[in-house]
Amino acid sequence: MVGTDGGVYGVEQKNFRRTLRYEWWWKPPKGWEELADWVARATDLFEASLETTE
Questions:
Q1: Predicted pLDDT at 53
Q2: pTM of the model
Q3: pLDDT tens digits, one per residue of 3-30
Q4: How many CB atoms lie within 10 A of CB 24?
Q5: Phi, psi (5° rounding) for residue 30?
Q6: What's the distance, Cα to Cα, between the start and end of the chain in Å?
Q7: Number of Cβ atoms within 10 Å of the Cβ of 11
Q8: Which of 3, 4, 10, 25 has the fewest Cβ atoms within 10 Å of its own Cβ atom?
Q9: Can you give the pLDDT at residue 17?
Q10: 9: nearest Cα among 47, 43, 46
Q11: Which pLDDT score, from 0 to 100, does residue 7 have?
Q12: Count of structural domains, the chain
């Protein structure tokens, strides 16, 4: 999802009864830097995987 002033980032986990979602706009809140770094690495990995499947 892309907004007019930046991107929306996050991670979500679901199971049968519950959903857990961490989401932020453009810059993560204080204390979420490690999660934001992980999301950035995962996004890079996913995008690289898509590039090699052409």
A1: 56
A2: 0.68
A3: 566 688 888 999 999 999 999 988 899 9
A4: 16
A5: -55, 135
A6: 23
A7: 13
A8: 4
A9: 92
A10: 43
A11: 80
A12: 1
d(Cα 4, Cα 45) in Å, to the nearest integer? 25
18, two tokens: 């519950």
Domain that holds residue 21: 2-51
Beta strands 6-14 and 19-25 are: antiparallel
Q: Closest by alpha carbon to 42, among 16, 14, 22?
A: 22
**Digit-coded pLDDT (tens) for 28-48:** 999 999 999 999 999 899 888
Alpha helices in the chain (DSSP H): 33-51
Map residue 32 onto helix, strand or coil: coil
Token look-up 């999301």 returns 39
Q: Give CA separation, 41 vs 4, 8, 10, 13, in Å.
A: 23, 15, 12, 17
